[in-house]
RNA sequence: GCGCCCAUAGCUCAACUGGACAGAGCGCCGGACUACGAAUCCGUAGGUUGGGGGUUCGACUCCCUCUGGGCGCGCCA
């Protein structure tokens, strides 16, 4: 829809430019007007040209409109054109055009909803990347939902996407987990062992210790932690990691690749990354440590990469990891982090820039906190361990679809309230059901139609000339509104992909579902009028196609019955 | 002390990357099932977009400042 209009305007601009004499014409921006009374679609091009032409926007708009009319005015597409407000060019579309686009949607289905803006560009999306020292909490879940949806969107938009989880398996944290497990292990065997100061106190630590006893008995009982830390640490974090992978899988999030930090060290990638920086003259020594000159790229201060004692900093692994991303050929690097990590953006951007990635090819999506509620009361903490509520607990209680959808009902960097009790209610307060119900309701209509032997919607429109013609019977204002809304989807989708904002699709789906519910209550789909019934079944089918597409992007199912 | 994010209807949040009269849901009140699923629909009310200034044809959006919240500022990971 956008394309047809762009072409019409493009043509008119060329005509006008014979007088203007501009070397380049600005991009044409087609918008969906806020208010339906303003028109079906609008162009802001005249306002965009005021600065260049130094003339009032409405005058320019008039010239463009003349150009459009002179060029035939897109006779198949446009009904009326008018200039409004400061210089908007508002278009009304012919019903015939809308019906033709609807037929196209029904014929091509999902492929007509996707645009290939990615053109196969390689995008790497890293998300969740939780430390394997404990189970995932709800905050991680939100990151997982957003990352997963974003990847679905980017893939559908033609990008070559890789979903990756970075495992912090090299540092002191996993060792501390190992030590915690070791302490529990000794305690379970009846020893009076001290628990490490800042050790991990969750129940899962004990479970791991029990597992080790089951496997190896008391083999390590008389050893010091220093003697067997490697075994305990590895065993513990690998078990944790398996749990995390399981939690994510049950949440419907599958990663393409898991990158181990330890492996970067073992393969010498940390060393070689630093050497590469050295060769670029971006490393220097000061106070016995080695520093990366990140201020060169706009960071607040330079960062230590090798400590005085010769150990690498955590940041050194990050350098290696992000260099590795570029070495693997990614054009764009997207990191999804908890909002509390925002301070790390400049240094990572510096690294990527140092290795040649343009600034705008690195994007960080910050995920804000989830405030968990129950009956409106905050429940951030739970259990004696004082741990955050785990993702698994919430998913088990509420369900994966609902949880994902709610995580996607807000912009990522906006705080989110998640009330477990409300989420479980099958009520109007729950937006997931609202959208899914529209889908299920349509399925139910189809079942009903079949029972009554009404001609089926299943034959493809392209093979059914009569059906194609019957779409012209869709003339009720609610029907026209729905058709237009359906045709907006590709624009919403494209916007979601370009801005990396999955929530736009969530909102769109709620709006579309709303239009459908409203229509359903006002008009009957199945009636004695066979042709009209058929046309309306097609409209229903189209709504279903788009609902399904959008829900798929969000990673949420579209059930035929609820 | 420095830096980043947030502030929009009573509540929870949108606003298409600077566009038109700022929109939904919830909540309140009142209505709609002997016809395709009432997990739905219909109808009102609700605003100086935290305050002030600036940039321009045009600002919730960009700049400055103040207020009030959140988070970062380690040779920790």
How would you characterize this protein structure?
With 562 residues, this protein is an alpha/beta fold. Among the domains are: 2-93, Arginyl tRNA synthetase N-terminal domain (Gyrase A, domain 2), CATH 3.30.1360; 99-117 and 428-554, Isoleucyl-tRNA Synthetase, Domain 1 (Orthogonal Bundle), CATH 1.10.730; 172-250, no CATH class. The chain has 20 helices and 17 strands. The strands form five sheets. A five-stranded parallel beta sheet has the order 7-6-5-11-12, sandwiched between helices. The chain has a four-stranded antiparallel beta sheet with strand order 1-2-4-3. Helix 4 (95-108) packs across helix 18 and helix 16 crosses helix 19. It is flat and about 90 Å long. The structure holds one RNA strand of 77 nucleotides.
Task: Record keyword descriptors for this entry.
single chain; 562 residues; alpha/beta; Gyrase A, domain 2; Isoleucyl-tRNA Synthetase, Domain 1; five-stranded parallel beta sheet; four-stranded antiparallel beta sheet; flat; RNA-binding
